[in-house]
Amino acid sequence: MTFRSLLFVPGDRPDRFAKAAASGADALILDLEDSVATEKKAEAREAIAAWLRADRAVPSFVRVNPLGGDEIAADLRAILPVAPDGIVLPKAEGAASVRALIDLAGGTMPPVLPIASETAAAVFQLSTYGDVADHLAGLTWGAEDLPAAIGAASARNPDGSYTAPYEMVRALALFGAHAAGVPAIETVYPNIADSEGLAAYVARGRRDGFTGMMAIHPAQVAAINAGFSPSEADIAYARAVVQAFAANPGAGALKLAGRMIDRPHLNQARKLLAQIRA
To answer: Among candidates 272, 235, 273, 237, which has minimal Cα distance to 256?
Structure first.
C-alpha cells in the first residue's frame, strides 16, 4: 500500500468519520491515543469498531496506545476482530516494538505503521525496521512527543522550520524507511490555517524523498494529495528518460534536454511510472 495522505480523526468523534472519509484522503487514521481522553477510550473503541464493521469507503488504520501501557491490550481486543487496514504504533522503538505488538496480538496483525521517533531510544533503532519490513505499511516520524521526552523547549525555529536535532531525526527516519524498502511518510504540519506553509512543507517532503504525509484536518488533504502526485511534466520527463535508454540500450549515460542522465535517473523514472500505473 502506498498512500499520499493519511488523515487523523479522533476515535471518540464518530460524527467526523464520514466527513473525513469524504475528504479525499487516501486513508484514515482513527485515533485511540493522544486525541482521546482516558475516560473516553472505551467509547472510542466501540465507535471505531462500528466504523470498521461497515463497508468503509477508504482504508482505515487505527492508532493504538503505546506498548507497555494500560490501554493497548483493550485496543487490540476491540479492533483486530473487525479487520482494520493497518495499525499505527506510537512510541515505537525499532523492530523489537513491532515484534512485541505482533506477539501481544497473538501472532496475527495487519500492516503496521510505526511512529518511529517519539522517544530518545527510538532514534537509535531507526535502522532496524528492515528486519520486520514484511509487517510494515511504511515508516513515519513525529516532532511533537520527542521534544517533551527530552525536555526541549521546541522542535522548531521561530520561522517554523525544524531545529538541527529534529532535522537529523527526520533524515534518519527517511533513510530508515528507504533502507527497509517501505514508504516514508512525512509527519504532520500543525498550523491548519497556514496553507502556504503547508504547500511548501509538502513540496519539501516530496523533494527529499517522502512518499506521503499525515494530515490533522480535512482542509489539508487536497494540498497533500497534489503535492505527492507526480505532475504531467514529471511523467513526461520520466517517459523521456525511459525512451532515451530504450533507444540506446548499451549506454551508461546520455544527454537529455541539456542534462546528463545515467542509470540512477532511469531507475527513478521507472519507479515514478510504476507508481502511476499502480
So the answer is: 237
